[in-house]
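input
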Amino acid sequence: MAVKAMEVDTVLNALGGKGIYQHVHHLLMALTSFSAAFQLLDMIFIGRIIPHECSAPPNGTGITIAGVELSSSNYTVEYGQCNIYIKYNTTTSISTEHTLPCLYGMTYTERKDASIVSEFDLVCERGALGDLPQTLLILGQAMGALVLPFFSDRYGRKPTNIISHACLLGIGVATAFSNSYITFAILRLLMGIVQQGVVLTSATYTIEVYPTLYRRYVGIIGTVVWGTCVVAMTPFGYYLRMESWRTQQLAFCSVSLYVIIEVIFLDESFRWLIANGKYGIALKNIKKAARWNKVDVNMVVDRFNELIGRQTLIIPKPEKGNELLLNEGETKPVEKIEKYSLLDILKRKKLALNTFILWYLWCTAALSYFGLFFTSSSLVGDKYLNFFLYALMEFPAGIIFVLIIDRFGRKKTLATFFTLCGTGMIIATIIKVSSDSYAASICITILSLVGKLGAGGAFGACFFYTPEIFPTNLRNVGLGSASIAARVGGMLGPFSRLLAQHIAWGPGAVFGGCCLLATLLITILPETKGKELPQTMADVKLLYKKIPDGLTLKREDGKTMIFKS
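output
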């Protein structure tokens, strides 16, 4: 029989619930967000568009058309961004205009290697190639979310995270030395794959480190750390703006050296160890945690022994066949640990329905986030200031999240953020279509920031809620599948600009409708507020059991509480 989630919480509560050990290990994993954020968003800086125009003929020579060099006295020339415009007089004295492509290359207002756009001439007819590497990174995220959660659930959160993090560092350095556009694009795809290994294991690990009562710390610390990461990119980009994109890339990926700290100090998830029968390592870690938290080690060990059905201290070695040696001469059969796959989710109707709805929520959050950028006018002013303002929206989203997640529950929190996001985008789109005045631009800017707040909050709430739906041995697989859905939304987002060219009100209607539908679908999902993380498939059914208000409950720490929804 598998260990239940509430029994795991018993041991975590015996450790103090939110002691130094839990906070330190939460922070150790949460700080990997610097690597994830820097590598995800650095294209804003290393792939920025540099002002340019067509180059003039070399060495003072004239422009040649059909093999004939024009006399400079017979024409005037204007060098545009993507074309050369020629006006000259023919022998019949008839004024004629010609439009030519940039025959002699491009001239940029900054150094040639200031951006990948300028170095690889990704402008004009090659302009779409400038956005392709970021699309490939998002595609890589989808691939990573599909594959890497299997390794996390099967082999552990720690090794999967550390290997992915080390690969992210290596690929980031290799990207800085790309000698061709194709190499750069392929490395961005690989970067997306391993970036998801860092993000998903971090999200799963941090929510597993606390018992149910203190799980809100995941949202608080995670939001603060992620917001800090994004804000921290602004001084990086601004200070290095005069350097080459290669130098900037090396600076952005240097934060991944943090993986060394992980290797030295990070322990494996206690929940994963228990769910996979790694009792010896689990016992070693809880003793360490008890010392850090300054609680009675013997008391914690007793709770641990009760958890796994043993009343004596476990000595994991030596093993006898399929038995573990406990005290001298005493053996106990090793439990068979259940292993699950994504198919096991789809075989169970309620869990399958939960999963399909979560996929839609993640897709809508990503679609809305990227749609905000493509359908709302750009913020007026310096691009670094604009980026800073968008990054700052992570903090009010986090404050709202903290204030309502435990008070009103997960479902109402999700609904609040999706409503904010959808309303902000719909109104901004209506104003943009109806007016182009300065006052309208100010309103659009404010509504864009509100939309960014909602989109960021929706993503955070999805990250927080999704792991609470799935049992331990499927938690990372479930989160990974949801992340794939988000990548689909992220790749569809840019097409909203094309839709707007044909139907001005189309994007606002689509995003608003998607957010409204998301709000309705949220009502079908189970509320996980105050409930332990499911450890097994059977525990998932408990999420649907409604606890009446006023019922006296006994908490894992032995105290009683009056339940209030």
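quick obs: The chain has 24 helices and twelve strands.
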